[in-house]
Amino acid sequence: MKNLIAGLIGFVILASSFTGKRSDNNIAVKTSVSFTDTLKKDAETGMIVDKDLYMVKAQCTSCHSSKLIIQNRFTRDGWKQKIRWMQANHNLWDLGETEKQVLDYLEKYYAPTATLARRQPLKDIKWYKLELK
Ligand code: HEC
After folding, report:
1. Residue 64 forms part of a structural domain
2. What's the CA gap between 56 and 93, in Å, rounded?
């Protein structure tokens, strides 16, 4: 019985480690149990409470739910690319001076640190263009 339960838990962990979403050239690992799970969450947005949260709320939650942010994990560069993508396609404004503050926050709490994943997220990936004929 014990083994069965351990096996089931193992399977769930294994299965969930395959659900990381690949988008653009960032790896978003959706299942992470890390130090952030023990931190205080903002009641309104569910985002982790921090001195920079007010700025992220101001810049990032007027068009869509904070859930879009919370459910993603990107590197600092990945977050920056998301911001550029929204600026190019969805009328997101220039964040100016506040971009650094927003990125500091996102990098600190919503980075791909998946301690339950089977391996660390890949770094320094060399991407190539797929030639479609
Ligand atoms: C001007 C409106 C607007 C603002 C402000 C905005 N976004 Fe978005 N964002 C969008 C739209 C539109 C989408 C696409 C929603 C969809 O696909 O349903 C999106 C999608 C996203 C996604 C999901 C991307 C994906 O690949 O699925 C993330 C993450 C995100 N936004 C983060 C942010 C962050 C962080 C900020 C603050 C810097 C922000 N957004 C501010 C318009 C905005």
Report:
1. yes
2. 13
